[in-house]
Amino acid sequence: MKTGLHRWHYVAGLSMAALVAIMALWNWNWFRPLAEREASGALGRKVTIGNLDVALSLTPMIVLDGITIGNPAGFPGDSTMATIDRLAVTIDGRAALGGTIHLPEITIDHPQGDFRANPRGNRNWMFGGTGDSGGALPRIDRLVINNGNIRFIDPALEADFRLAIHTTDSQKSGEQRIVATASGTYAAQPISAEFRGGALLSIQSRTEPYPIRLSLKNGATTLLLAGTVSDPVHFAGANLKLDLSGKDLNDLYPLIGVPLAPTPPYKLTGRLNYIRTLIRFEDFTGTVGSSDLSGTFSVNPHEERPKVFAALTSKSVDLRDLGGFIGAKPGDEKAPGAPAAKTGAKVLPATPINLPEIKVANFDVRYHADHIKGESMPLDDMTVHFIIQDGRIILTPLSFGIGKGQILANVSLDAREKEMQTRGDIDFQKLDLHRILSSTGPFEGKGTIAGKADIRTTGNSVAEMAANGDGNLKLFMEGGNLSALLVNLAGLDLGSSVLSMLGIPSRAPVRCMITDFGMTKGQVKTRLMLIDTTEANINGTGSIDLAREQIDYRITTDPKNFSIGSIQAPILIRGALGNPSIYPDPVALGARGGTAAVLGVLLTPLGALIPTIQLGLGEDTDCAKTIAEVKAGSPSSPKTEEKKN
User: Fold this and answer.
1) Is-contact 373 317, C-beta < 8 A?
2) Is residue 201 within 8 Å of residue 175, measured between CB atoms?
3) Percentage of residues in the chain having pLDDT higher than 90
4) Which of 542, 561, 540, 538 minimizes the C-alpha distance to 551?
5) What is the mean pLDDT of residues 259-268?
6) What Rg do the C-alpha atoms of the chain give, in angstroms?
7) 231 shares its domain with 183
């Protein structure tokens, strides 16, 4: 018995001595290579740990000192992506025994990062590796970050800025709220930002809304986001107010990843939300240039190309503010200080239409403007539904209200090929001629116009499209009247044209106007142009070469009343579209002393007025009679009527 007891005491003493020896010699750094291997596999790059220690208790604390995270392949081998002076993680031992990971506190001291892209565009903060990233996130009660500093460098984004991050105690709850500030450059513009968020515990809570406040200034763009999110992990239940202002909406492209049309300065306020797969800027109101704008703008960033949905309205819009949508400079009719066009200069823009950005995202946008501003603007309202899908633009429809009528267009532009393909069909319905002509100033008229146009063309600029175009234009007008000035200038009625400029007579009744033009490969030919008025019958023949921008046109007038000073000769319009020569046919005119000196003064407006004259389609019973007379070969005039009687 004594021998057995002696042996037990011997074994117990030996075990105690061994335990004391183990405790004296134990070093948690024995497990450091294993920890480094696991971390390296999870992050996809080399991770080294300077020291590993564990404080054992019911809530053990694991402490890692001198953590270094290297760069992935493609970066210098000795470079580092991040360092952490000290990482301390407290574990709930009881929860761990039950199979649940509960971390009461994580403390990160002086984390530093050098996040950058290499010359190939690979970014070192994009993680990969063999670690399993699945499973639920552990419960974390408290996150403490002290003196964090990260530098971001990405040449593709023209970005070089520093992010300072730390946590601070909330005065009310004692929670560690996150504070981050940024400064440097982004998109080649100065950037400064400040983010204040709630504690990490609030992120995982479904009962405590997570508070957010973000202020950002990037170049001329200013953003303020403030409010709460009920489920920040899934960005659900957002109650956020977003204020946006800046010099140009397209400056948001680097920030939101969606290209927008260039605009004049803007200021918008609305709500930011996330519903299913859509980030939504809801119920916003504000101004763009001198126009008001309201609606909802949504983006689905999860597709290969971001998809944009928008429903926008304006009570009053200045179309110059929308110039960026058609490639013009928004807010200006022409660039300040632009030189005057030279004689014979090209008038059709040859600058390629810049469309690469439309392939970056897809759009489905509906827009309506109740009123279009501008004293010289004949348009009353505007409605458009435009779709951009994989490089193809579809406007279906695009409509403008003019008085009681409208211009209705369906247009498609396909930019998927090297040369853009354009198709368009336009209907002119019950247009008020007075509404159109009154916008030109002293030139007035009445009547109703209607007609149809279509075009099929290819090209990457307006000049190329015009040179390659095939199509038709048919316009008619019955009843109403044109300004007598237009008729008298067309007939070189010198005495009456001066009186017409003074408003005497103010208008010339129109029996009928018929125009029919065809275009083949940029060659516009007149099938028929006839204006039958009480002052004169006007007939136009000729062609326009849009490829060379040359015009060769002949206007013949048959006055119905004698006027002193009237020159009875066809008018020829020839030369460059930018500055054509306008003169009477010398063969028909013969020698007319003193006439040449006045032609330049009186005929200069004609070139600008011809497009206005050619607007016409109206409805009146006289038009049927005129068509019959055209078929017979002699439109009637008061003189011929008297001879018949």
Assistant:
1) yes
2) yes
3) 35
4) 542
5) 92
6) 39
7) no
Which letter does DSSP use for residue 117 in this model? Answer: B
Reference 278, options 253, 303, 259; nearest CA is: 303
In a domain, 523, yes or no: yes
Q: Given a cut of 70, is residue 552 above it in pLDDT? A: yes
Among residues 204, 228, 262, the one where a domain terminates is 204
The pLDDT of residue 507? 59
Q: CB of 603 within 8 A of CB of 582?
A: yes
C-alpha span between 637 and 639 (Å, rounded): 5
Question: How buried is 88 (Cβ within 10 angstroms: 0-12 exposed, 13-18 middle, 19+ buried)?
Answer: middle
Q: Are residues 315 and 453 in the same domain?
A: no
Do 287 and 402 belong to one domain?
yes
Structure tokens given for 388: 């951009």
What mean pLDDT do residues 45-65 have?
A: 91
Asked if the structure places residue 617 within a domain, the reply is no
Is residue 195 located within the same domain as residue 217?
A: no
Tokens 């990405």, located at residue: 154
Assess whether 117 and 38 both reside in one domain: yes
Q: For residue 395, which of 437, 358, 346, 344 has the smallest C-alpha distance?
A: 358
| Total domains present in the chain | 3
- Indicate the average pLDDT of the chain: 78
Q: What is the torsional sign of CA 125, 129, 131, 132?
A: positive
How confident is the model at residue 566, as a pLDDT? Answer: 54
Per the domain annotation, does 634 fall within a domain? no
pLDDT score recorded for residue 447:
75
Domain boundary pick from 180, 204, 228 = 204
Rounded-to-integer distance, Cα 515 and Cα 28, Å: 95
Q: Decide: 422 and 601 in contact? Cβ < 8 Å.
A: no
- At 228 the three-state DSSP class reads strand
Position 583 confidence tier, pLDDT thresholds 50, 70, 90 = confident
Residue 643 domain-assigned (yes or no): no
**Looking at the structure, do residues 385 and 439 belong to the same domain, yes or no?**
no
Domain carrying residue 261: 209-331+352-406
Shared-domain flag, residues 218 and 195: no
Reported confidence tier of residue 425, pLDDT bands at 50, 70, 90: very high
Which of 87, 124, 129 shows the shortest CA–CA distance to 105? 87
Does the predicted TM-score (pTM) go above 0.70? Answer: yes
Pair (287, 189) in one structural domain: no
| Tens-digit pLDDT profile for residues 433-447 | 777 766 655 555 677
Task: Tell me the per-residue pLDDT of 593-616, one tens digit each, with 9 for 90 and over.
Answer: 333 333 333 333 333 333 333 333
* CA distance to 19, 246, 309, per residue, from 15 (Å): 6, 76, 74
